[in-house]
Amino acid sequence: MSMKRIKTLLLVLLASVVAVVFLLPLVWMISTSFKNDFEALSGKMNFIPLKPTFDNYIKGFSGELMNVPILQWITNSLMVGIAGTAIVLLIASMAAFALARLKDLPLRRTLLSMFIASLMIPGVLTFLPMYMEFNALGLINTYAALILPYTAGAFGVFLLYQFFISFPKDIEEAARIDGANKWRLYTSIMLPSSVSIMVTLLIFTFMGIYNDFVWPLYATTSPEMRTITAGIAMMAQGSYTQSYGKLMAMTAAAAIPVVVIFIIGQRSFVKAITQSAIK
């Protein structure tokens, strides 16, 4: 066997081990979600439930879990994730286009440096000032408090800037010769050409908003306004501390929207990574 084949085999084995390490907690979560509380607490490492049951899912979605509005939490997470992602895509694409293609923009390089520098600031440093600001505005425990903080990130601007700055100038000049103004150039040329990178940003942004835990936990005070991540955390600390089957069932249900979003945008996600690698 040649050295090239041996290296390939070792890489495949390494990738398989890494995949198993990442998938093992997910498989255990799904397996536990079909166990009753007695079996889940038994401590036995059996991935196949001895007596599979759908009661954990049925009770969760039918509202039989006392004072736990699971469907409302999932609805809140979806609303916040979709609204926040839409705003991020709009703001980030417009800002990136202006910084990359509008040479007459005042202080363009300074603004770009500020955007990049803001990526170095840990989010924990801005948590308290942001909470105090929203509290002073009376927005705590509202959808505005759950959505607006995510729309001010610089990651999307930086990601799209890298794409727009490398866009062929010949196409832009041809569009200008045909009479396209800045808005037409943005909507008809740049956006259709950046579908793959926009889908990538959509996936990252939605997953980040949907899976966020700390901010929704402190930005909401009533059970009805919580997102699914904060809600499950409250369940784990409340009367369902030892109900591992119910907790795993709700966690598995909460993961479904993120998995669906990733499956739908998987091709564009891979395409964007490939294009970036080629560039």
Automatic annotation (TrEMBL):
- The protein here is known as Sn-glycerol-3-phosphate transport system permease protein UgpE
Source organism of the structure: Paenibacillus woosongensis
List, alphabetically, the SUPFAM superfamilies matched: MetI-like
Show the InterPro entries listed in the entry.
Answer: MetI-like, MetI-like_sf
- Do you know which CDD domains this protein is assigned to? TM_PBP2
Domain of life, per the record?
Bacteria
Listed transmembrane segments: 73-99, 111-131, 143-164, 185-210, 244-265
Instruction: Report how it sits in the membrane.
Output: Multi-pass membrane protein
Q: Which residues form a coiled coil?
A: none
The protein's location, in the record's own words, is: Cell membrane
Q: Which residues form the ABC transmembrane type-1 domain?
A: 74-265
Alphabetized, the UniProt keywords read: Cell membrane, Membrane, Transmembrane, Transmembrane helix, Transport
List, alphabetically, the PROSITE patterns matched. Answer: ABC_TM1
Q: Which Gene3D superfamilies match?
A: MetI-like
Sequence similarity:
Belongs to the binding-protein-dependent transport system permease family.
